[in-house]
Amino acid sequence: MTTAKIPLIDAAHCSGCGRCIAACHLRLFAFERQGWRKIAVLHDGDRCSGCGKCAAMCAIDALVMQERAALPVACLAC
User: Fold this and answer.
1) Distance CA 77, CA 13 (A)
2) Could you give phi then psi for residue 62, rounded to 5 degrees?
3) In the predicted model, is pLDDT for residue 58 greater than 80?
4) How far apart are CA 29 and CA 13, in angstroms?
5) Global pTM?
C-alpha cells in the first residue's frame, strides 16, 4: 500500500515566486507574510491529492513531497 504524499515547504528557502500556487489545481496554496518576506503556505492539506505538480514547479527545491505519516502532528490540546 502506498502512502499519500503532501507538500512540505521549507519557509527559510521559499522565495515567494508563486509557482507552486499557480501549479495547484485545487488552489490549496496562498501567500503569507513573514516579516518583510512573503512565502507560500499550504492550506487545507487534507484536500491535497498528492499529485506533486507544486514540487515539480519549485525551481529552488524549497518544496518537497513527503509521506503524510512522516509529517509532525500538531497537538490540538495545547
Assistant:
1) 30
2) -85, -5
3) yes
4) 16
5) 0.78
